[in-house]
Amino acid sequence: MAISISVVLLLLILTLIFLRSGGLKVSHALVCLMLGFYLASTSIAPSIQSGLTATADIVSSLRP
């Protein structure tokens, strides 16, 4: 749960930066948002979630 909230906040911050810098248009952001909602309702959603969880576990276990 904490990982998904962190990912959502990171993506939100990146989206806001891109919107302010002019690199991302509002229409593009809306398309990305709709794609996320559609992906969440498909049968591939558990695979995406487990992949992100595994990646987060690997990254968190790295020592600088």
Describe this structure in words.
The protein is mainly alpha-helical. It has one domain (2-59). 81% of the residues lie in helices and 0% in strands. It has helices at residues 2-21, 26-40, 45-61. The longest helix is centred in the first third of the chain and has 20 residues, at 2-21. It is flat, with a radius of gyration of 14 Å.
Radius of gyration: 14 Å
User: What are the segments in which pLDDT stays under 50 over at least 5 consecutive residues?
Assistant: none
3D shape: flat
The percent of residues in helical segments reads: over 70%
Estimated structural class: mainly alpha
The fraction of residues assigned to DSSP E strands is under 5%
Mean of the pLDDT scores? 79
Please, how many domains? Answer: 1
Total beta-strand segments: 0
Largest sheet: number of strands, sense, barrel closure: none
Terminal Cα separation, in Å? 25 Å
Order of helices and strands: HHH
Protein name: DUF2304 domain-containing protein
Please name the defining characteristics of this protein.
single chain, 64 residues, mainly alpha, flat
Summarize the structure.
The chain is mainly α and 64 residues long.
How are the secondary structure elements laid out?
Blueprint: H1 2-21, H2 26-40, H3 45-61
